[in-house]
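Write out this protein's structure.
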Amino acid sequence: VQLAESGGGLVQPGGSLRLSCAASGFTFNSYRMSWYRQAPGKERELVATITVAGGSTNYADSVKGRFTVSRDNAKNTVYLQMNSLKPEDTAVYYCNVIRYHINYWGQGTQVTVSS
């Protein structure tokens, strides 16, 4: 299993970023996918989850209405569109899949929201 995040960077408050996670090594369209984030000195937290066909999504209260998770099963890729970014969204963002009770993570992509 390999997960490769991309799309992070430095953005001003109120700005937008779109993260991507390219997956390989497993049957992507058979697994729910999630995005997590970890800020310095804090625990990793769940940001968003999307079901196999993308028909159902869930979000942390802190990002509801601002972030949108989506997936393209033809491209084995999951996305996180982040709008109206706030300084408190600064973190390393990770893609996640649980397969046979094992958590798999990518290397993460840094998102910094600062003026």
